[in-house]
């Protein structure tokens, strides 16, 4: 029997620009700085004491250009599609736009890039529970295409405006049998 953690508590980033990164995460996630100084900041957006920590050591090396091994992205889940779109609109009004939007199948996801070049996924879950999402991920659509299908936010809005149910929108297009 393996003892497992009960949740992922927080993520920590090194940065060369603590203020800019702190401001970005506070803006994007609606977070607040719980405590901070000139070299570290602890941020939260919920009941956890901190979800993100930012550390700015002196003389930190810049992030190498291009794709490298290591941490790829963090993901934050919203309560529903409406909340995800409201966040998109708020951020767009501030000049923060997603670099990619993907319908993964278990999620609809908007990918942003923070000031240090880290990817941040803002998503909404399709399934009500992890077990159903895992079962879908074991199926043929995800096996054939584990990344998902790019989409335009405008198309998503048109579908909602037309009265299409959210449950229908959450079905990945390649699952639909015609």
Description:
The chain is an alpha+beta fold. It has helices spanning 18-29, 81-93, 130-137, 140-144, 153-161, 166-169; strands spanning 11-14, 32-36, 40-44, 52-55, 73-78, 100-103, 107-113, 119-125, 149-150. Strands 5-8-7-6-9 form a five-stranded mixed β-sheet. Strands 1-4-3-2 form a four-stranded mixed β-sheet, with helices on one face.
Looking at this protein, list some descriptive labels.
5-stranded mixed sheet, single chain, 178 residues, 2,3-Dihydroxybiphenyl 1,2-Dioxygenase, domain 1, alpha+beta, 4-stranded mixed sheet
CATH architecture of the largest domain: Roll
Into which percentage range does the β-strand content fall?
Answer: 15-25%
Question: Mean pLDDT, rounded to whole units?
Answer: 94
List the strand order in the largest sheet: 5-8-7-6-9
Span from first to last CA?
46 Å
- Rg from C-alpha positions? 18 Å
Instruction: Summarize the main sheet.
Output: 5 strands, mixed
Number of strands: 9
Give unreliable regions as ranges. none
**Count of helical stretches:** 6
Structure, briefly:
With 178 residues, the protein is of the alpha+beta class. 29% of the residues lie in helices and 25% in strands. β7 (107-113) and β8 form a beta hairpin.
List the helices and strands and how they pair.
Elements: E1 11-14, H1 18-29, E2 32-36, E3 40-44, E4 52-55, E5 73-78, H2 81-93, E6 100-103, E7 107-113, E8 119-125, H3 130-137, H4 140-144, E9 149-150, H5 153-161, H6 166-169
Parallel strand pairs: 1-4, 5-8
Antiparallel strand pairs: 2-3, 3-4, 6-7, 6-9, 7-8
